[in-house]
């Protein structure tokens, strides 16, 4: 199916009380759209990454009481899982959509990748536009503009803090008309991944 964007009801999913009720809404409203996005970008993403990227959709399987505050899809070269690998993400919080290149704390080669990024930091600064965002914790709805961020410090934290993470990309407000326009949003996702692809490929030389 063609991806037609996200609507207010999708973002209101995170206001639903109860784990089972919210998960049902996530599965019915949002996850089919994640599949539609993947179908739209799969071929171009494979070209950017230099290999096939498999779709993973967050299952939130560890949750037994508290409903998820966000949900996401991930694209990774590994068919079995993504958390231990460099990967791309598209997902939603209640008030924004995010498009990330993600390195989360479960990554075994975290310190080695961080060291490479620190060595290449000036080149990375040239690649990443000032209006992109950076996050250091995927579990918090918190991100900062690259232009307002000390990237060197963020990379040092990523390297030295056990739970340190690095996510670079875009956050788009839920009220932005872009999120409701499937064609335009798909284009933005592709463009974002295109910008981030050199950073991804660089990290994969270590991985």
Write a compact overview of the structure shown.
Helix 2 packs across helix 6 and helix 3 runs antiparallel to helix 5. Helices cover 43% and strands 18% of the residues.
Structure description:
The protein has 207 residues and is of the alpha+beta class. It has one domain (8-206): BirA Bifunctional Protein, domain 2, CATH 3.30.930.20. It has 6 helices and 7 strands, in the order H-H-E-E-E-E-H-H-E-E-H-E-H. A 7-stranded antiparallel β-sheet has the order 1-2-3-4-7-5-6. Strand 5 (133-135) and strand 6 (144-145) form a beta hairpin. The protein is globular and about 45 Å long. The protein starts with 7 loop residues before the first helix and ends with a helix. The model has no long low-confidence stretch (mean pLDDT 96).
Low-confidence stretches: none
Distance between the termini: 34 Å
Number of helices: 6
CATH class reads Alpha Beta
CATH architecture: 2-Layer Sandwich
Structural class computed from helices and strand pairing: alpha+beta
Question: How would a textbook summarize the main sheet?
Answer: 7 strands, antiparallel
Quote the beta fraction.
15-25%
Strand order of the largest sheet: 1-2-3-4-7-5-6
Report the count of strand segments.
7
| Helical content (DSSP H or I, runs of 4+) | 40-55%
**In angstroms, what is the radius of gyration?**
16 Å
The topology string of helices and strands comes to HHEEEEHHEEHEH
What is the CATH homology-level superfamily? Protein of unknown function DUF1054
């Amino acid at each position: 199916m063609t991806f037609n964007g996200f609507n207010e009801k999708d973002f209101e999913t995170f206001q639903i009380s109860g784990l089972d009720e919210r998960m049902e809404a996530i599965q019915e409203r949002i996850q089919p759209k994640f599949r539609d996005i993947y179908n739209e970008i799969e071929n171009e993403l494979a070209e950017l990454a230099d290999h096939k990227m498999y779709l993973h959709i967050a299952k939130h399987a560890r949750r037994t009481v508290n409903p998820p505050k966000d949900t996401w899809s991930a694209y990774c070269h590994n068919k079995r899982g993504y958390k231990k690998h460099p990967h791309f993400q598209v997902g939603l919080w209640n008030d924004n959509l995010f498009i990330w290149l993600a390195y989360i704390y479960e990554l075994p080669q975290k310190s080695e990748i961080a060291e490479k990024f620190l060595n290449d930091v000036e080149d990375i600064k040239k690649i990443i536009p000032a209006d992109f965002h950076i996050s250091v914790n995927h579990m918090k709805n918190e991100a900062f503009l690259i232009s307002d961020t000390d990237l060197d410090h963020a990379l040092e934290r990523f390297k030295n803090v056990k739970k340190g993470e690095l996510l670079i990309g875009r956050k788009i407000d839920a009220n932005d008309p872009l999120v409701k326009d499937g064609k335009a949003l798909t284009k933005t996702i592709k463009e974002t991944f295109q910008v981030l692809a050199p950073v991804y490929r660089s990290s994969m030389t270590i991985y």
